[in-house]
Amino acid sequence: MYLSKYLKIGVLLIILCSLISCGVYSFKNTIIPDNVKTVHINLFTNKARYINPQVGPKITDALVQQINNQTKLTLTDDNNADYQISGYISGYDVTTSGIGSTTGTQTASMNRLVVTFHLIWVDATKNNKKQEFNVTQNFDFSSNLSLQEAEVSLMSDIVKNVSESIFNDIFGNW
């Protein structure tokens, strides 16, 4: 009985050691090469037609928190970090997403805020390999609300969803 317990522990340790020594570490669904130690995140700006001055800094802060909580990377102000992340909000647009009918007249019942974020990621460990891509998230709200009213209730979702998409695109197993 004690032998099988120690055997199980031994097998588990062997598996754990083999995973650690493979040159890549994984932490909470992230894949980061072991030679990547530092990351620099520039403050995200807003280049959309409509500018909400809170969104860029809040997304920056949320991404910093995710990196601190979900990776072993060290955040640095050094522009020579292993990973350099920058970007900007390129789209912040409202469209109609639902039509309702009131006494025979069709009116917008739902609006959609479409937030597009342009991400620039430089991997200095791979000869400054640069990747650029867009992250787009949609947020529906009642047409009875103005954009400013909707932003109050949507802000936490906007920040959470956009920062998670950015994090997953950089550090996820894709």
Automatic annotation (TrEMBL):
GO cellular component: outer membrane
Pfam hit, one: LptE
GO biological process, one term: Gram-negative-bacterium-type cell outer membrane assembly
Matches recorded under InterPro entries: LPS_assembly_LptE (IPR007485)
PROSITE patterns in the cross-refs: PROKAR_LIPOPROTEIN
Designated name of the protein: LptE family protein
